[in-house]
Amino acid sequence: MKKSGKNNIDVSDQKRILVIGGGFAGIEVLRRLEKKFENDFTIDVSMVSKNNFLLFTPMLPEVASGMIETRHIVTPIRAFCKRARFYEATVSSIDFQKRQAVISSVTGNRNGSVNYHDHTLDYDYLVVSLGGETNFFGMDDVRKCSYTMKSLGDAIILRNHVIDMLEQASMEQDSESRQGLMTFVVVGGGFAGIETVGELNALVRDAVRDFYHDIDVKDIRMVLVDAGGKILPEVTDDLSKFATQKLKESGIDIILQNPVSSATQYDVKLKDGTVIVTHTLVWAGGVTPEKIVKELQCEHDKSGRIVVDRYLEVKGIAGVYALGDCASITDTHTGRPYPPTAQNAVEEAKVVANNLISAIRGGNKISFNYKSRGIMAQIGKRKGVGILFGIKTHGLLAWMIWRSYYLSSLPTLEKKLRVLTDWTIDMFFKPDITRLNIFTENQEIQAKALSDTENLASKHEAKSDTT
Ligand SMILES: Cc1cc2nc3c(=O)[nH]c(=O)nc-3n(C[C@H](O)[C@H](O)[C@H](O)COP(=O)(O)OP(=O)(O)OC[C@H]3O[C@@H](n4cnc5c(N)ncnc54)[C@H](O)[C@@H]3O)c2cc1C
After folding, report:
1. Which end of the chain has fewer CB atoms surrounding its CB within 10 Å, N or C?
2. pLDDT tens figures, 266-325
3. From start to end of 67-197, where are the E strands?
4. What is the mean pLDDT of the chain?
5. In ligand 1, which atom is closest to the CA atom of 287?
6. pTM summary value
7. Residues 263, 334 within the same domain
8. Does ligand 1 lie within 6 Å of residue 192's CB atom?
9. Is residue 448 in some structural domain?
10. 309 and 407 share a domain?
């Protein structure tokens, strides 16, 4: 008989709960289960997530601008696991019949190759909270030429690239080329897009004013492109107009109802034929579920999200719950699906945790019937827009409410203090324009050798063309 835990519980008597995806939704479920079952060794809780941290996405654009230090918006998942097991791995398949999930972990070798290890986890109850990935609407050229704003790596890479553009523009003699280097296009008028364009705009303008004296501010062009008719579709028309006006006043061009149709490394083409010469295309045009979610043997909506009932249980599959960005939940107040926001994900998690506990211990199930208390977005330095308890706010007040709300939502006191310190320092000092080199010395030597070989080959080609 296999025993587990401090109290020598027979493993076959245990109920196994598996939570997959350590984002806003998964972590909130985990926290609630931990609290309920902390001393109950008949319950075994496991969490699987690709990264070993919870990423606080609303502050990601501020990491890209350098206002907040990279590690201050992430919290290790193990900090939430008092008893739960944590696996840093990718869920590669789920079998609802066998009640099993296969997870893959990767080990990197010194020679750069990787080894994959698969493990099979059994469960009695499954919580699917796998979020989503950036949606390029099938445009492969755009995917290849875009920077994204979804992960910590995205923010670091974008920041490095933007600073690189500033360095190159300050050396560039040709004014047309300089303008191309200083043009930044952000696609997507939702939260991620407008917060990103607001932060990039502040970074580039402050950096040029304080450090890059060879660049003329007139060369800076910051463009926000959206396929729809207004930005921030979640807010009322007048707040959306306010946000549009404030973004324009801070120097951002807004192009609406004109989707991106193609892109190369050096330009972006819009549906009406407009071509914008740029080296920077940031794609924040929406999210779509990952392939593994779309391929699950259950009902999906037309965008591939998992359809759940009002108790957030996957339709027709007992013991499996889905929530967050990967689930399709109809808002009974509007008749439309809940938008993919962190606020909704956390509220859904409260219902899933309650219903799971009721399923195990007996008790009442509750249905998800959340009415949003408000919506807030930061649209640049010291400016925000939002609706809170039905009251519209904008400008400095909205920005201060935004900051207080998100600061209070950060998971630990340590992170709250670190972010507060970052914000305070930013108010008094110039932006940090250090471009972090993320390559090892060895990789740099190899890259240099490769580029020398390529240069030599092109010189040979040029020579043979002339002879
Ligand atoms: C830049 C940006 C700004 C935003 N600003 C706001 C805002 O101001 N307000 C707001 O309410 N919302 C905002 N959002 C949206 C918000 O981040 C999402 O709605 C929220 O994160 C959804 O939570 P989730 O738990 O469903 O998914 P996520 O938080 O995305 O979590 C999913 C988790 O699953 C893991 N995962 C995915 N696939 C696998 C796999 N195969 N195996 C293992 N693990 C996997 C991921 O690594 C991740 O940890 C913003 C999003 C972005 C990108």
Report:
1. C
2. 999 999 999 999 999 999 998 999 999 999 999 999 999 999 999 999 999 999 999 999
3. 74-76, 85-88, 90-95, 100-108, 114-122, 125-128, 133-134, 147-148, 183-187
4. 91
5. 53
6. 0.91
7. no
8. yes
9. no
10. no
User: Does residue 135's CB lie within 6 angstroms of at least one atom of ligand 1?
Assistant: no
199 lines ligand 1 (CB under 6 A): no
Which protein residue has the closest C-alpha to ligand 1 atom 48? 23
DSSP string, 381-394: TT-EEEEETTEEEE
Tens of pLDDT along 199-253? Answer: 999 999 999 999 999 999 999 999 999 999 999 887 778 888 888 988 999 999 9
Residue 110 and residue 150 share a domain: no
- Determine the structural domain holding residue 98 and report its residue range: 3-50+89-132+289-361
Question: Total domain count for the chain?
Answer: 2
CA distances, 462 to each of 448, 450, 451, 454, 456 (Å): 21, 18, 16, 12, 10
Q: Looking at the structure, do residues 342 and 231 belong to the same domain, yes or no?
A: no
Tell me the pLDDT tens digit for each residue of 167-209: 999 999 999 999 999 999 999 999 899 999 999 999 999 999 9
What six digits make up the tokens of 430?
């110039």
Which residue, 310, 334, 361, sits at the end of a domain? 361
- Out of 32, 57, 60, mutate this one to test ligand 1's pocket (max ligand atoms within 8 Å of CB): namely 57
Cα angle 415, 417, 421 (rounded to 5 degrees) comes to 115
What local confidence, expressed as pLDDT, does residue 1 receive?
A: 44
Cβ–ligand 1 contact at 403 (below 6 Å) = no
- Let me know whether 196 and 270 are in one domain: yes
235 and 248, same domain (yes or no): yes
Contact 2, 12 (CB under 8 A): yes
Is residue 193 within 6 Å of ligand 1 at its C-beta?
no
Residue 81 Cα, ligand 1 centroid: separation in angstroms?
19
Residue type, position 30, single letter: L
In this structure, the answer to whether residues 152 and 281 fall within a common structural domain is yes
